Amino acid sequence: MISRITGKVLEKGLNYLVLDLGNFCYDVLIPACVMQRIDELTSSENKISLITYHYYQTDQAKSIPILIGFLNQVEKDFFEIFITVSGIGPRAALKALNKPISLIAKAIDEADLSFLKTLPGIGEQRAKEIIAKLQNKVGKFGLIQDRHEQSKQAPKNISEEALEVLLQLEYKRNEATAMIKNVLEANLRVNSTEELLNLVYKQRRLK
């Protein structure tokens, strides 16, 4: 079981890193709430150390080892308690955790259905199940200092750039947002705005 990994960042995607460990490289999936702060703890030599959640994804006759990375043990602890909710596995949690953990924990504690429903893949029923399972159990996670980036002018990400393009092409905002969300939920590795827009186009052609 791989519990920690340290290496040089060889490639950085929307929600994954490829780490060079010397003689071999590892793909490590990263929740968006963690990826937002990756640069803070990447050394000047482009190296980083991650706490990892290691599991095997079973796909028909094969079993694929998956690593999900976190900056500290508390983030991993939250991930592990989050996936105890019925119907939320590691992949679903990876997609859902796209806001600061402290805010998600606060929403759970305050039974804020509206906030929880903004998390990718979390509908009203799932949000209710999260609250029923985790309310009053996640208080310590609300103390994580992971919100300071909100006070800064954040650079545009791939989704925001793609949205701007679609709006210029005269798509309605809610339609464009839905198309982008559907593509990102189906494709964990989208590396550029151009790739995202191509996937949106292919998705529309299939309808």
Outline the structure in words:
With about 210 residues, the chain is α+β, with helices and mostly antiparallel strands. The protein has three domains: about 5-70, Beta Barrel (OB fold (Dihydrolipoamide Acetyltransferase, E2P)), CATH 2.40.50; about 75-150, Orthogonal Bundle (DNA polymerase, domain 1); about 160-205, Helicase, Ruva Protein, domain 3, CATH 1.10.8. About 40% of the residues lie in helices and about 20% in strands. The chain has helices at about 30-35, 75-80, 90-95, 100-110, 115, 125-135, 160-170, 175-185, 195-205, and strands at about 5-10, 15-20, 25-30, 45-60, 60-70. Strands 3-2-1-4-5 form a five-stranded antiparallel sheet, with helices on one face. A hairpin with a 2-residue loop joins strand 4 (about 45-60) and strand 5 (about 60-70). Helix 7 (about 160-170) crosses helix 8 (about 175-185), helix 7 packs across helix 9 and helix 8 crosses helix 9. It is globular.
* Helical/strand content category: alpha+beta
Can you tell me the overall shape? globular
> Into which percent range does the helicity of residues fall?
40-55%
Please give the largest β-sheet. 5 strands, antiparallel
Uncertain segments are 149-155
